[in-house]
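User: quick one, fold this
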Amino acid sequence: MRITIVIPTYNEAENLPHLVSAIFALPLPELRILIVDDNSPDGTGQLAEDLGVQYPGRISVLHRPGKMGLGTAYISGFRRALADGAEAVLQMDADFSHPVEKIPEMVAHLPGHDFVVGSRYTAGGSVDKNWPAWRKALSAFGNFYVRTILGIQIHDVTGGFKLWTARTLNLIPLARVRSNGYVFQVELTYVATRLGLKGVEIPIYFADRRWGQSKMNVRIQIEAALRTWTLLGRYRDLKPQK
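Assistant:
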């Protein structure tokens, strides 16, 4: 199975070489990487091109003219990966918050499922041990809030470490996806469940980024909380797929 890992980047020059090296050290020669860079001022885009030379045939780069948002970065990446023949697509952050060593386990769980979620909130999952209590509580409540409103059984709805089959991404109406911040993760999972697609969660430890600055802030979290309500009406017409 050809698997493409879509990694959006904006100022990730410190992380990217380490991440690429860790991914290609895995016993999965079928892995390819697609880096979607939003014209990072720190030179991440050129660095990605240089890594493509270092790993010929395994890395491609999609350059965008500016910072256009997480959701559109992933959708552009998904479309490119599918057009290039990917049979499954993994989405993950560039900052090592998603454990690379869990990728083989996610791939092993894909047969018989439409998508696999690297989950902080299923049994055995956890978040960074150094997070203060208020941040842990806010993250857990955010997932509970979204799951309750949308009626989603997946425990980690807001996480961004997911492996999708090509069939699943082709069934999801990507042209209708409007969320362009972190609520994009919620929207994609909600649409998949509305379509009756089968997901499975595997536990992960979600660590804080190793290098660089986090792009999460209170404004983004408030936006996600408010936009969640709009999803109820947007996809009311979707029916389970056979």
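User: anything notable?
Assistant: The radius of gyration is 17 Å.
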